[in-house]
Design a protein that fits this description.
Blueprint: E1 2-6, H1 19-27, E2 31-39, E3 42-45, H2 57-64, E4 71-75, H3 81-90, E5 96-99, H4 103-111, E6 116-121, E7 135-139, H5 148-156, E8 160-164, H6 174-181, E9 191-195, H7 198-205
Parallel strand pairs: 1-2, 1-9, 2-4, 4-5, 5-6, 6-7, 7-8, 8-9
Antiparallel strand pairs: 2-3
Length: about 210
């Protein structure tokens, strides 16, 4: 399993999606999930509408300093996929995927050859264009609804799966993490976990990545 930090490895809420949080995450060997939007012709790191002082995607990649750690890019505005790909390519970064885009943009990004993860959750039980996507962004908004068989089935079909950890929805992690640990794919790099407590996850699941 590969563990991703959620908006960097932050120590206070104000550090989310900041250089300090990303640097800390990368220095400890964690990839990260983050949000991208456009502002004044630039692709910036921003969960909410950008104010103008946000870090640019290029600056985040510069912080990686050539480390090809996993990046999960949550696209918050349509039409950014191709430009994001150009920026990633300029830094030689290949270990990434995009997710959470609107359905028309998902179709467009697949047509452009981007590595797309479709959505699957308790609120979206039928993942759009699953056969065409590289992987699945597996979320648990209201409950720990899935079992280890689902993880093994998806990875066995050649899909990568990134599980949204229960802590991102302010739920206890024990039940969900115990389910994940039962999966046969838990020691494979086709399985990822996005969490606000990546160090705890690494300790719980071990170093297998």
């Amino acid at each position: 399993m590969e563990v991703l930090s959620h908006r960097g490895l932050w120590e206070t809420a104000e550090e989310k999606n900041t250089a300090a949080a990303f640097r800390r995450s990368f220095d400890l060997g964690f990839g990260t999930e983050t949000d991208i939007r456009d502002h004044d012709g630039e692709i910036v790191i921003a969960h909410d509408m950008p104010a103008g002082n946000e870090m640019r995607l290029a600056e985040l990649l510069a912080l990686m300093a050539g480390r090809n750690l996993a990046l999960a890019l949550n696209i918050k505005a349509d039409g950014l996929g191709e430009r994001a790909r150009e920026i990633l390519a300029a830094f030689g970064h290949t270990n990434y995927f995009v997710f959470d885009m609107a359905l028309p943009d998902l179709v467009h990004q697949l047509g452009c050859g981007l590595p797309v993860f479709t959505g699957l959750s308790d609120l979206q039980p039928y993942p759009p264009l699953l056969a065409d996507c590289e992987g699945v962004w597996l979320d648990c908004f209201r409950s720990d609804w899935f079992g280890p068989g689902l993880l093994d089935g998806l990875t066995g079909d050649g899909k990568r799966v990134c599980v949204v950890s229960a802590d991102l929805h302010q739920r206890d992690i024990d039940t969900q993490w115990s389910i994940i640990k039962l999966a046969k794919c838990v020691n494979e790099n086709s399985l990822l976990l996005c969490t606000d407590v990546p160090e705890k996850a690494r300790s719980y699941f071990g170093e297998a990545r």
